[in-house]
Request: fold
Amino acid sequence: MSGQLLHPTHGLGIPLTKAVLSFTEQEEANLVAASKKGDQDSFAQLVQQHQRRVFNLVFRMLQQYEEANEVTQETFLAAWQGLPKFRGDARFSTWLYRIAYNCALKQLEQRKRDQAMQIELQTEDRSATSTQEQRVDDDIDSHARQALVHEQLANLPAKYRIVLVLRHLQDMTYEEMAEILTMPIGTIKTHLFRARNLLKERLEMFDRERLSRTRGE
Amino acid sequence: MRCPEANHQLQLYIDNRLSMNQVRELEEHIARCAACQRQLYVLEEVTSALRELPPVVEPANMTMLIMQRVAMSSRRQSDNQFSLLRPSLFELVTVVILASITTLSIIWQQPSLREVLPFANPLSQTILYVVHLIDYGDMKMITLVLWVGGTIIGIWITLALAGTEIRTKWFKAMMDRLPVR
Reply:
């Protein structure tokens, strides 16, 4: 993943969950009801409300900016076309994220099928890894540790990435994640714990390497 | 509490999924165990790094691009609805035939008009011949034939005017219900 693609929206370090202005539940319900009747202006407001979160969710799964852009558009188009079937049993955002997750999964499967693209991605990964190794060698401060976690997140399997993103970037509960990913809570917990343990292990490995280098000097 | 159990609970601890009693027990263990303290520290470092992950800004024109696609999909849907009103060649021929039958029957009922039109006489003679046949034929059989013929023509006219889409659905539904394939 290219570092230049990451642009903080503000300099205050406010997490993503607080960065977007939100409607009240009633306002959102009114917009959804109007959109179901075909009101495109209301739907545009829903798009503005949710597009950043949906885009980030998709981007973290796909790790590719242009693909994330396309899949986010497809997500909202699918939502617009599926709105007449939306009964309101779940929250609109939950329903929307489920669509986004499914669209991103479909894209990942498509990518797997595309052999040529896979080879290209592997080449990119190799160059990213070598850059990352270089950075690990150069920086040993806390920023480097944070960057390491961010980079290792990109290398995790998609099923682990998605639970980490939903839990820590979108601040969701186990129950909300289970609803979006249509998985039992037990599976959500297993994936989440394994994902965090993997990141923890890589951070510990980084510490051990640093320690052995210090002793070597 | 032992370290393996504490290790498992650390994950639930950072997600605030432990009861008050479990939290107390775990914190007591952590206070005494340097290894679990270290585990908690690294785990918190991981979660904090994830929370600090900067949001990726979507393209500036994303709303516009999405709404363009939404508008196009809506237009396509309304075009599809309009296509139900656009007659096919088959439907057009049906309408022309029906209109011709109506016109001819009007001409046949107007003797003055019949005399003026050059093709009206042979036509009226043919119709009169048919009426004559009906008058002298078996009335029960003729009624049955007219009833069956009328039903078939009625269904045919309905399907012809209903449009291709409804016709296809009707045909599919009918085939599905047939006991033999």
Summary: Chain B is about 80% helix and 0% strand. The mean pLDDT of chain B is 79. The CA atoms of residues 59 and 65 of chain B lie 10 Å apart. Chain B touches chain A through 31 residues (CB under 8 Å).
